[in-house]
Specification:
The complex is a heterodimer of chains A (178) and B (593). Chain A has 178 residues and is α+β, with helices and mostly antiparallel strands. Chain A has 6 helices and 4 strands, in the order H-H-H-H-E-H-E-E-E-H. Chain B has 593 residues and is an alpha/beta fold. Chain B has helices at residues 19-25, 77-93, 108-115, 151-159, 194-198, 210-217, 249-259, 267-290, 306-315, 329-345, 362-367, 386-395, 417-420, 427-441, 491-502, 532-547, 558-568, 574-580, and strands spanning 2-6, 9-13, 49-52, 59-60, 71-73, 132-133, 139-142, 166-168, 175-177, 204-206, 223-228, 263-266, 300-301, 352-358, 382-385, 461-467, 482-489, 510-514. Classes of the chains: A alpha+beta (178), B alpha/beta (593). Bound molecules: iron/sulfur cluster (3 copies) and FE2/S2 (inorganic) cluster (FES) (2 copies).
């Protein structure tokens, strides 16, 4: 859609208020209520809105769609792309697939844990980073591999991770500014 | 038809029959775990593997249909080895402390391991995560004993329409439980215990309260009395090797006296009392609607089944005014015992300890409801299931099978055949009709042998219409009316009936709902396993109890008439209201954090 508003007026990156988020959530629930197979899209959209699936949101979806809470929780916990814990702005995934594991993936993971001060599945207090493990990015030839957001880094050395993070942040800041 | 050969035995079976059923008709037994007749066939556990000639892989016989000319072997070295592996892998994760387990000697995993000759375990593995859940009055969960067969999930969602249990997480972390594997009281669970009734192992069991009863019996300051629900007498025998449907009322009474109860009362007495109260309530609601033209909240629903009450409180709070305000017979008995009886024997209500023997785990929760304290103390102190009574009798060293017949106390043990049939789906309705019809018309109930056939049996939803031709003057407004009634058992069926009413597709005056399939005879606290054959045998036994009585209508119970004359006054009177009626509360489907 074309708009005649000047580009500088765009507020897309400002966080929506809790009331606004809830209004959007309820809209989605209403849209999908009584649609077969509606649960997964609603969860996906809700996770998009909130960044993760807070318990109040899960309850609201369960009651709103009239789907048993246990079933909703069963679906959320089955799929790894749903998260019930807050996620950081940046997602660090360390590969522990076989190739990466034998070439030092575990040491890379330990280094990230130490550097970020969090365990696997956790998010730093400043909500910047979430640490997760993964299984094979298809980059085995240059193991050990990690991803930060969707960028793959290969042959990662435990001693170099601070540098990698800094570079990634720089690139991200540039991208955002652009 | 298909011709199949099972272990060299030829059988003709219908196309589409599973190998498991074909084998059974050839007299060949195949072990099963996740399979549950009439309820679930999902091929998940792989214990029922068989070899099919010409096929590369072994097949799960509970889901594999036969084809014409198929040749099946159920007992080859390959099959035996595969089955052993399945069981050994299950055992390697299993919290297998059989000697202290509630299911010891009543366990399908134990039985299957024994049956296929598992004598060692070649696999060492991480144990399943143990979550102990004692959050509800009815049940205890231990996830480390769960073999992930999903029977409980299927019963809870498809039969009961509740879905309190669901597989959570995935892979090795999979647990079957409430949302996020939290406690059962965080979700809408009606406490019916059907999950525990179908669980093959000790992962979901009744909250065992036997020790509380032994403690009371050993306390010289307590006057300990017991009541037994109608459904116990048709099932307790199964705990002692009798076939389903064996009537053991007399032996049961003797066993209770030997255990040391100072009064042995019959919940049947208050079942008859319930009919007097509930029948009158229905007639008054009809009068309010038809004569006074006021909102009378029809159809009226029965209220004896506490799982159903909880279901309505969670899922249909707008229907709560339609529930009869009558307490269940168990609670009425407690209320009468701790008032009228207490006075007669010169005891204070708090010195009386009332034990109930119920086919039901939801009754454990019902007894704990705050409203159920008519005399300032709990109406009922402890509820034991049929299974717990069976174990208690064993613990007491009583040889049940050699017991003589005993008789219940008078007057609280006196009852009619109408009370017996409270145990069966359709029974409360039939009992109510026997009485209400005679009160209104002054004529004998016009059904052959007093049975209203259309509302008997295992169909999920049943209906009947009772025309009322002439009436006594008091009920003249019902002259020429037709009373429409419905009966549902299993909460999934209750849901269907309510949804039809809400859509305006069905119009009834009175509806009986029982939580468990088959009614109380199929309750979550009854001896395992309760399939449809067992249900039918127990139902037949209960009707036989009824038919062997001289008195078969609640209003003819002389002890109940006397209680009204001496103590209560009249049905729905002031005293009744205080002792025998209750209130309901809407409940949140998800517990607040
Ligand atoms: S569930 Fe069965 S196998 Fe497991 S400990 Fe209990 S009795 Fe033993
Ligand atoms: S007690 Fe009934 S409602 Fe609760 S989990 Fe078990 S089957 Fe479901
Ligand atoms: S709790 Fe029992 S019935 Fe439910 S999945 Fe586990 S073993 Fe099966
Ligand atoms: S194992 Fe790590 S990328 Fe393949
Ligand atoms: S009984 Fe057939 S797979 Fe479980």
């Amino acid at each position: 859609m074309l708009t005649d508003k000047p580009a500088g007026d765009c507020h897309c990156t400002e966080p929506a208020s809790p009331e606004e988020l809830r209004r959007r959530l309820d809209e989605i629930i209403t849209e999908y209520k009584d649609k077969p197979g509606g649960l997964i899209p609603v969860l996906q959209i809700a996770q998009g809105l909130y960044g993760y699936l807070p318990d109040e949101v899960v309850r609201r979806i369960s009651l709103g769609l009239d789907k048993p809470y246990s079933e909703v929780a069963g679906v959320i916990t089955f799929y790894s792309f749903f998260s019930t814990r807050p996620r950081g702005e940046h997602m660090v995934r360390v590969c522990l697939g076989t190739a990466c594991y034998v070439r030092g993936g575990k040491q890379v993971l330990d280094a990230f844990k130490k550097e970020l001060g969090i365990d696997v599945g956790e998010t730093t207090a400043d909500r910047k980073y979430t640490l997760e493990v993964a299984r094979c990015f298809g980059a085995c030839g240059l193991a050990p591999a990690i991803t930060i957001d969707d960028v793959v880094h290969q042959r990662v050395k435990p001693t170099k991770i601070r540098e990698i993070l800094a570079k990634h942040m720089q690139a991200a800041a540039v991208a955002k500014g652009a | 038809m298909a011709k199949v050969t099972i272990d060299g035995i030829e059988v003709d079976v219908a196309e589409g029959t599973t190998i498991l059923d074909a084998a059974s008709s050839a007299g060949v037994h195949i072990p099963t775990l996740c399979f549950l007749k009439d309820v679930q066939a999902i091929g998940a556990c792989r214990i029922c593997l068989v070899e099919i000639e010409g096929a590369r892989d072994l097949a799960a016989s509970c889901v594999m249909p036969v084809s014409d000319g198929m040749k099946v072997r159920t007992n080859t070295p390959r099959v035996r080895e595969a089955r052993k592996t399945v069981v050994e892998l299950l055992l390697s994760e299993h919290d297998g402390d059989c000697t202290t387990c509630n299911r010891n000697e009543d366990c399908e995993l134990q039985a299957v391991a024994h049956e296929i000759g598992v004598t060692e375990n070649r696999y060492e593995g991480a144990k399943s995560k143990r979550t102990l859940d004692a959050s509800t009055p009815a049940l205890r969960r231990n996830t480390a004993k769960c073999i992930l067969c999903r029977r409980c999930v299927t019963i809870c969602s498809e039969v009961q329409g509740v879905t309190a249990l669901f597989p959570q997480y995935r892979g090795f972390k999979t647990v079957v439980g409430p949302a996020f594997n939290k406690d059962l009281d965080t979700v809408a669970c009606v406490q019916c215990g059907q999950c525990g009734a179908v669980c093959p192992v000790g992962a979901i069991i009744e909250n065992d309260q036997i020790e509380e009863v032994w403690a009371a019996l050993g306390n010289p300051n307590k006057h300990v009395v017991v009541q037994t629900a109608p459904a116990i007498r048709a099932a307790l025998g199964e705990c002692f090797g009798y076939p389903p449907g064996t009537r053991v009322k007399g032996q049961m009474v003797s066993a209770l006296r030997r255990i040391g109860f100072q009064g042995v009362f019959d919940t049947n007495f208050t079942a008859d009392l319930t009919i007097m109260e509930e029948g009158t309530e229905l007639l008054l609601r009809l009068k309010k609607a038809l004569v006074d033209k006021q909102e009378a909240h029809l159809p009226m629903f029965t209220s004896c089944s506490p799982g159903w009450i909880r279901f309505a409180e969670y899922f249909y709070p707008d229907m709560l005014p339609n529930l009869s305000t009558c307490k269940s017979p168990q609670q009425m008995m407690g209320a009468v015992v701790k008032s009228h009886y207490a006075k007669k024997v010169g005891k204070k209500p708090e010195d009386i300890f009332m034990v109930s023997i119920m086919p039901c785990t939801a009754k454990k929760a019902e007894a704990k409801r705050a409203e159920m304290n008519a005399n300032g103390v709990a109406d009922v102190d402890v509820v034991l299931t049929t299974r717990e009574l069976g174990r208690m009798i064993t613990q007491a060293g009583i040889d049940f099978r050699s017991l003589p017949d005993g008789t219940m106390d008078t007057p609280l043990g006196e009852s009619t055949g109408a009370a017996d049939i409270f145990a069966n789906t359709g029974g409360v309705m039939e009992a109510a009709l026997r009485t209400a019809y005679e009160i209104v018309t002054g004529q004998p109930f016009p059904f052959e042998n007093l049975h209203v056939k259309p509302i008997e049996g295992l169909a999920g939803v049943k209906e009947a219409s009772i025309p009322i031709k002439d009436t006594v003057p008091e009920w003249a407004f019902l002259r020429g009316a037709t009373l429409n009634v419905a009966v549902a058992h299993g909460l999934g069926n209750a849901r269907k009936v309510i949804e039809r009413i809400k859509k305006g597709e069905a119009h009834y005056h009175f509806i009986e709902i029982m939580t468990c399939p088959g009614g109380c005879i199929g309750g979550g606290g009854q001896p395992r396993m309760t399939g449809n054959d067992t249900r039918k045998a127990r139902i037949a036994a209960i009707y036989a109890e009824d038919e062997h009585r001289d008195l078969r209508k609640s209003h003819e119970n002389p002890a109940v008439q006397k209680l009204y004359a001496e103590f209560l006054g009249h049905p729905l009177g002031h005293k009744s209201h205080e002792l025998l009626h209750t209130t309901y509360t809407a409940r949140a489907k998800i517990k607040a954090n």
